[in-house]
Amino acid sequence: MSRRYLARYLVSRYFSSSVSSRPLHVCIVGSGPAGFYTADKLLKAHEGARIDIIDRLPTPFGLVRSGVAPDHPETKIAINQFSRVAQHERCSFYGNVKLGSDLLLSELRDLYHVVVLAHGAESDKDLGIPGETLSGIYSAREFVWWYNGHPDYSSLKPDLKSSDTAVILGQGNVALDVARILLRPTTELASTDIARHALSALEESSIRKVFLVGRRGPVQAALTAKELREVLGIKNMHIRIKETDLSVTPADEVEMKNSRIRKRIYELLSKAAAAAGTSESDPDQRELHFVFFRQPDRFLESNERKGHVSGVNLEKTILESAGSGKQLAVGTGEFEDLNCSLVLKAIGYKSVPINGLPFDHKKGVVPNVRGRVVSQTLESLSQTEPGLYVCGWLKRGPVGIIATNLYCAEETVGSISEDIEEGVFKSSKEGSKGLMQLLEKREVKKVDYSGWEKIDAKEKQMGTERNKPREKLVTWEDLLAAAAAN
Amino acid sequence: MFGHRISRSGSAIVKQLAREGYKSTYGRRNLQRSYGHYLPSLPMVQTRTSQEAFFLKNHRFYTASASTPEEGDEETEKITIIFVDKDGEEIPVKVPIGMSVLEAAHENDIDLEGACEASLACSTCHVIVMDTEYYNKLEEPTDEENDMLDLAFGLTETSRLGCQVIASPELDGVHLAIPSATRNFAVDGFVPKPH
């Protein structure tokens, strides 16, 4: 075992060091975990790699900054490692540079040997049901970006005062995040890095009941154990689960046998249902209801407020086998209404296609083979685009955790390394120098890492004034001004 | 080499895990284990400064070098841990008792990520204990560790988080494999059970 792998290891090390004298110019589009883990591994694997990471936002770190919930600061610690990568002498970060507007993909490919697209998924899956455009219905992504101070969503102004009920469609971790932020006492949120406008809105919110609605049952719920344990442990938050929803079928047993996490989730939910004792009638109490076996059929419009949502019409479902252990929800024709003034769709993200790039609309990814972008498939043989790669959600679809990108990046960098060995990158490229010239010509106000450090310092300083780890700057103007300040 | 050992002890492990590892004690708050109980296993002859350094080392998880040049150093017991990287290369390292596997990897430039810096908020320090006998010597994972392991890439029945595995005399000679995306972990017949 060891000898064969050792030999290959030494050979690959020899090859990479023999081309290290010639710089390998790399541009990574997207500065979230996928982008940074790719940069990290490329820097370690190739001494000649010179990497520029660009992002359309002035701030780096992608969803670690704009997606992770404010009450999960430990999850944001990954930023420390990413910061070290950005400050590496062979790596540079440039924010406020947008692919498609400030420069074209073809221009990047002219300037760099390797272009890695790691810009994730900035859109949402649609339900495609009537009433979806009523006001008061948002995707969870929009709501998350709103409370996390993303500059594109600071003026979302969701209505949290028209009723005491919000409905969340979906039962993944994002659904739990938004439920928690809606129901947590604002005194607890006040010491997090939640955006100020969101904290103010939540302080005046009348939402006290949140319904997490899933098409299937507790065995299929997409949430994970840590997050579930967390909501079950929040003080003064009452969990409601119907005991009847907890009965399992033989098909469910098989699913649990094959997946340790499904089994643990089911056990936690069962315990929660059993423990959900008396229903005290405290008007201010917060309730989290898990609703299973219901799929939304249409949204109901309010009579008093035209154009605004007043509820969801749900169809009861049963599960049918779809082969290979998978079960799908099928409508039974029985319907019921659930009234609410706020609906959040937490049913999945979707990537936005880029002009000039092949895109698989069904899977929502850029077609690729182990990270190499596929230009076309002729007779089941994939032809790949030289020098063009993908990593992260754009490559795999919007699933997984931060850590998933570690292995995703390993695979993509593995493909890049193979291509280096094959001598794919023989021509000389301008790299960074060319990018700087192009951006200057187009008067792009790029934000380099020191610009981000100024934003970071300002946010932290404002945070200390309010006993928060940081007070985020939430508009483009404020962010760019802070980055350019002296 | 390891395969048949796994299958022999496999069902025993699953039973043990089912009995102990999956019990839910939700509401439990301790996210980090206290390592106070490892201190008594050290020789008592130590200078105050080296004791302090040791205490700090084990409560912060990312510190300076293992060999503090103080009087107590020669008496700090070390064990050998053998990391197996994605190319199958074995890298033996000397690890002082009480140090976590994650720290040991970082001190020896082993490529083991620790994104959340030992806060039990990620699974990037996932290691596979290649010998079930060694795996059984470890204290079982807490609920919090199991929650993170649930999501670990390439999870096996002998997987642990490196930040939670602490070097102790019984672990001398343990082989820890680092999961890899570019190599399927079928090393010497060691086949990870699907999860």
Automatic annotation (TrEMBL), chain A:
<keyword id="KW-0274">FAD</keyword>
<dbReference type="Pfam" id="PF07992">
    <property type="entry name" value="Pyr_redox_2"/>
</dbReference>
<feature type="domain" description="FAD/NAD(P)-binding">
    <location>
        <begin position="25"/>
        <end position="184"/>
    </location>
</feature>
<dbReference type="InterPro" id="IPR055275">
    <property type="entry name" value="Ferredox_Rdtase"/>
</dbReference>
<keyword id="KW-0285">Flavoprotein</keyword>
<dbReference type="InterPro" id="IPR036188">
    <property type="entry name" value="FAD/NAD-bd_sf"/>
</dbReference>
<keyword id="KW-0496">Mitochondrion</keyword>
<keyword id="KW-0560">Oxidoreductase</keyword>
<keyword id="KW-0521">NADP</keyword>
<protein>
    <recommendedName>
        <fullName>NADPH:adrenodoxin oxidoreductase, mitochondrial</fullName>
        <ecNumber>1.18.1.6</ecNumber>
    </recommendedName>
</protein>
<comment type="similarity">
    <text>Belongs to the ferredoxin--NADP reductase type 1 family.</text>
</comment>
<dbReference type="InterPro" id="IPR021163">
    <property type="entry name" value="Ferredox_Rdtase_adrenod"/>
</dbReference>
<dbReference type="InterPro" id="IPR023753">
    <property type="entry name" value="FAD/NAD-binding_dom"/>
</dbReference>
TrEMBL record, chain B:
<dbReference type="Pfam" id="PF00111">
    <property type="entry name" value="Fer2"/>
</dbReference>
<keyword id="KW-0408">Iron</keyword>
<feature type="domain" description="2Fe-2S ferredoxin-type">
    <location>
        <begin position="77"/>
        <end position="182"/>
    </location>
</feature>
<dbReference type="InterPro" id="IPR018298">
    <property type="entry name" value="Adrenodoxin_Fe-S_BS"/>
</dbReference>
<dbReference type="InterPro" id="IPR012675">
    <property type="entry name" value="Beta-grasp_dom_sf"/>
</dbReference>
<dbReference type="InterPro" id="IPR001041">
    <property type="entry name" value="2Fe-2S_ferredoxin-type"/>
</dbReference>
<keyword id="KW-0411">Iron-sulfur</keyword>
<keyword id="KW-0479">Metal-binding</keyword>
<dbReference type="InterPro" id="IPR036010">
    <property type="entry name" value="2Fe-2S_ferredoxin-like_sf"/>
</dbReference>
<keyword id="KW-0001">2Fe-2S</keyword>
<protein>
    <submittedName>
        <fullName>Adrenodoxin-like protein 1, mitochondrial</fullName>
    </submittedName>
</protein>
<dbReference type="InterPro" id="IPR001055">
    <property type="entry name" value="Adrenodoxin-like"/>
</dbReference>
